[in-house]
Amino acid sequence: MRAHHDTRSRAGLELGLSLLACVSLAGCLTNTPDPELGGVYACVEDVDCPGTQACLQKVCEAVELPVLQILNPESEEKYPFGSANTDILNVSGANLILRSQSASNDPVPGEGYLVVFVDEVEVAVIDTGDISAGIQANINIPDTPGAHRIRVQARLNDGTDYDNETAHARRIVWVDDGREHVALRKPWPGDVFGLESQVIEAEVVTLGGIEIGPPETMREHVHVYYDAPFPGCLIMNPMCEVGYNGVVPSDEDAFGPVLLPASAAGMVSLTAVVAKFDHTTYEDDMGERVFSAPIMILRSDAQ
Predict the structure, then answer these.
(1) Rounded CA gap, 249 and 96, in Å?
(2) What is the model's pTM?
(3) In the list 58, 94, 203, 215, which could disulfide-bond 186, CB 3.0-4.6 Å?
(4) Domains, the chain, ranges and CATH?
């Protein structure tokens, strides 16, 4: 529970007492929520909130929530393998006053700081500057061939994440060793999905000469495997190759449906494997399969 719960409780109590006092006055009682009163109404989505209020951590707040975008590096930027790849992360945004935790650890909506992750490892904290003018931080890209993920997340000063969709920005970049690579852009490591069976959207990116398209285009496409890291599953179970849970792309755009089976709570893996148009496994010029490092997603009944 956020630290300003007491403030919200007092506001709710005052609202309740004022409504109680109104009962004796004709026409005073109303069921219409006050669009100016933040921190009172419960919500799941923005549409549950009165007026222009926004849903933050299941409570309606009378502020605009943070919006972030990464300006540099560019999406799918390529860095040479074998080099010390240091770059300047440039982030801009709106609706967030940067404030360090040393200055305050109160979770005030509209205030907070940014946390920078590379491959889901925290590498920097940004808590000063004008986010609307753009702010910068140095980052190092690991010298490992293939995809690397950059994520910037807005946090309240109590250390909890802003959970609105625009409060994070994401980029995939490559370390290019001249070979072909594939990665899942969507979902992202750590994304949360319910326990029930469901179909989700997946998006992939590739590096090298692979031309991705729907199978009917006679081009390569991608099979997505659920909790069966490739190619190790082939050793244990030769049927693993045909046990994929989705094809990306399966139609004329970059997205494809992937089936998540009903599951117990916990972390599970998704792996992208390049396939030929006839659904047999693609091999590169060196006769090796092209597959992603698995990403881990969370299955949970608390979303």
Answers:
(1) 36
(2) 0.84
(3) 203
(4) 5-61 (no CATH), 67-176 (2.60.40.10), 181-299 (2.60.40.10)
